[in-house]
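Dear support,

I submitted the protein below through the web form. The confirmation email said the job was done, but the results page showed an empty box. After a refresh the structure appeared. I'm attaching both so you can tell me whether what I see now is the final result or a partial one.
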Amino acid sequence: MTYTSSARQPDPEPRPTWSRGADRPPGGQESSAASSAVNDSNVVPITVAHTARKGASRHADTSLTSPETPAKGKRSTPTAGKVRADALRLLGCVRIATVRQMAEVITKEESDGRSYVRRAMKELAELGLAETNGKVGKEQIWNLTLVGQKALAEGNELPPRPKAGTGAKAVQAGFGPHAVAVTEMILAYTDTVLSGDRECLTDWQVEVNHAIRETGLSFNTDAVLAVPTKTSEVRLFELDNGTMSQARLAKEIWDYERYAGHRTWEGARGTNGSTYPFWQRHRYTRSERFPLLYVVLAGKEEHLLDNRRQALTADARGITVAVWVNTMPRLKRGDPWYEIGVDDPDRRRRRYPEPVGR
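What the results page shows now:
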């Protein structure tokens, strides 16, 4: 299987194959194997909570905003309660965000709407639902408290997200810039690839663990988007904020092939049994293909990011999972992605040994 590193839009697989008002792939009960996958349950398999919203146009304004332009051209002020609720929902999805990022999603004012969001965040902090633990540049970084997460869960606003932390310790440890960059990637992808469909923001999860206990493989995916296509439940996202070495970045990409290549043996004792891909049996049970991996490079000047992209293309040569790479500036402009890896399950199966039956 050969692949090309030429730039093009991730089409057709990465784009949603369902439209607003059309049914997503049918659901069904989860397999017993899925519930027994230890250390591999941070992504909730697609359930009724992820079914398509009915009756809205794909290109309609579906942002989380409350204010609408009233008659005679006068602009209304966002209600304080709605801004607070939207801020809680957004932080529940992306975990960490600045006021500027939240204002891009929550308000539709001609100004950036930061004053509304600042007021809402101050009120949420007074209620003990949100807090700030650091800054990126001059901007404060906000996250939910445990009480805020509980309030969001009790409101039944988002699908259950086991093991989701608040992100406070990461910010306190100095990793806030990376988390803010992940949020920036999510917003940019939503704007340029999902055509600004802000309703999909509730389908994101961050810092999602992928692990296989018996091999010791364990890594966190920066972001996972649960918007199913015909062949895959989710899309995987890794962001490099210019802080890791080229060798470590390459290793993180190859960890996905190791995860995709692991197979599990199933069958009654004393029978021949069969082997199945671990990810398909225990994680993404409605996917026909291993999810596409997006890699976004950020944190440096654009020409340096282009050099890093070219180096990653060489490091990923021969990989048997689908990998697309882009830089943050190109993503924000809506420029094409570079394909540096193609899904090849047959070659992947030959590369990784079969498990021994009982």
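Response: this is the final, complete result; the empty box was a page-load delay. The first strand starts at residue 7 and ends at 8.
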